[in-house]
């Protein structure tokens, strides 16, 4: 037996020496048995704990892990984009789980090992700089002013690793494609199979109902669309709906989540008394209109005033006498998951959904009811599908520079689309999984990324 042990040691020692790079990169993890971090999973993998730790170390956007076994005893690993320090409300006891995070946050690419850390209030540290993504939209100057008020500036990047850190940690799952929403319609879903970003889940399917292109739902199926801003702006949501059968259950037109928690629900109820109802339970805002008939098309629109919280429904183009106010603050509409859900609980059809980041007039809502969408004019600047960064040539046309004075030594793409009218830099996603920069009109609105140096 001793001979066997010596043989094993003799074989193992050279192997360990040959894998010094493994132990250099592996680092030390703090393990907390019986705990887990919920709602921040990048992806789940069938890995042992040691392999899970190594994978996290090799993943730029990973800051902690959950390890556990499934019902068949298989090892599973969750890579998390956050930590218990950054998201304490997501951290809880869970039987059978172990939560772990590296004591020294480090990502190594060859001999380049920048440090990283998930900080409170959704800031992320990379070496001596911290970054934060803001989902509310504003023009480039407004974004920069806010960043400066926080003691920083719009984001700048000096290396590929730094650029990819911000992209994969904060922007990868967001709808920041190389497109502009110049009409001001957040989405206009035609439900005819051509809507960009619309995914059907379960038995939901495209159909034609009474000559209308529509999506059919069976009560358990639903659809998903990329998230857009509802928590910091007035808005109008309008849709044609055809309940197949009468139901007193909630039929959701639009729902937003943070992790597994519902943040807001906007929907209808085809039975009970008519009129609008607003309920707040466990910080979930539910806005429902009761009295929608079944077995016929009804056009319903909700306008919502950000400052006053007043919600006004319109049925078939006519303003309802029933109004209500949301409570708590409109900021409670803010959902962090990258997708909204449509149609959950509905046994019937939906057609022609439009969301606009302002309160439409009564005439405009009548136009929507009658299908005249082209009559709607946008009174706000265009909404760009991207995130402002500090790139600009506002001082001298054609001379691109960073707003914080950092030398421009790195670009992910050479062609930025710069022109006399497009002077401000936008971070976008291309080819489904790659980051890029472009220039856009500075007066347009977009989300943005701030940077602070320590």
From TrEMBL:
Signal peptide coordinates: 1-18
Record-annotated membrane-spanning stretches: none
Pfam family, one: Laminin_G_3
Domain C-type lectin: 388-451
Keyword annotations: Signal
Gene3D superfamilies: 2.60.120.200, Mannose-Binding Protein A, subunit A
InterPro entries with a match to the protein in the record: C-type_lectin-like, C-type_lectin-like/link_sf, C-type_lectin/snaclec_domain, ConA-like_dom_sf, CTDL_fold
Protein name, as recorded: Uncharacterized protein LOC116289037
Lineage, opening ranks: Eukaryota, Metazoa, Cnidaria, Anthozoa, Hexacorallia
């Amino acid at each position: 037996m001793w001979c066997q042990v010596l043989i094993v040691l003799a074989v193992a020692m050279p192997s360990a020496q040959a894998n010094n790079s493994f132990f250099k990169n592996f680092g030390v993890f703090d393990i907390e048995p019986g705990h887990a971090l919920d709602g921040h999973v990048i992806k789940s993998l069938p890995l042992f704990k040691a392999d899970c730790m190594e994978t996290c170390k090799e993943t730029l956007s990973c800051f902690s892990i959950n390890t556990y076994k499934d019902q068949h005893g298989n090892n599973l690993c969750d890579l998390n984009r956050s930590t218990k320090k950054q998201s304490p409300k997501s951290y809880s006891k869970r039987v059978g789980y172990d939560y772990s995070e590296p004591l020294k946050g480090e990502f190594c690419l060859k001999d380049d090992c920048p440090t990283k850390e998930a900080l409170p209030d959704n800031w992320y540290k990379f070496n001596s700089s911290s970054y934060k993504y803001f989902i509310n939209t504003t023009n480039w100057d407004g974004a920069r002013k806010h960043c400066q008020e926080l003691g920083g500036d719009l984001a700048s990047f000096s290396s590929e690793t730094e650029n990819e850190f911000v992209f994969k940690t904060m922007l990868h799952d967001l709808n920041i494609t190389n497109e502009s929403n110049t009409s001001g319609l957040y989405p206009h879903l035609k439900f005819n199979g051509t809507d960009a970003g619309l995914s059907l889940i379960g038995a939901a399917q495209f159909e034609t109902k009474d000559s209308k292109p529509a999506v059919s739902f069976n009560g358990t199926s639903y659809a998903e669309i990329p998230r857009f801003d509802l928590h910091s702006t007035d808005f109008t949501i309008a849709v044609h709906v055809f309940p197949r059968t009468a139901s007193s259950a909630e039929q959701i037109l639009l729902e937003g989540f943070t992790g597994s928690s519902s943040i807001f629900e906007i929907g209808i109820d085809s039975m009970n008394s008519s009129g609008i109802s607003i309920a707040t339970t466990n910080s979930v805002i539910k806005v429902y209109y009761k009295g929608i008939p079944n077995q016929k098309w009804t056009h319903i629109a909700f306008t919502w005033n950000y400052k006053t919280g007043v919600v006004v429904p319109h049925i078939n183009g006519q303003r309802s006498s029933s109004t209500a106010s949301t409570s708590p603050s409109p900021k409670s509409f803010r959902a962090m998951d990258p997708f909204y859900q449509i149609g959950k609980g509905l046994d019937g059809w939906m057609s022609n959904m439009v969301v606009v980041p302002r309160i439409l007039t009564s005439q405009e809502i009548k136009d929507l009811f009658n299908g005249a969408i082209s009559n709607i004019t946008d009174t706000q600047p265009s909404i760009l599908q991207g995130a402002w960064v500090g790139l600009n040539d506002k001082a001298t046309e054609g001379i691109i520079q960073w707003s914080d004075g950092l030398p421009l030594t790195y670009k992910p793409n050479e062609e930025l689309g710069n022109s006399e009218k497009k002077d401000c830099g936008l971070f976008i996603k291309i080819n489904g999984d790659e980051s890029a920069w472009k220039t856009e009109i500075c007066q347009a609105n977009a989300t943005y990324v701030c940077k602070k140096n320590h």
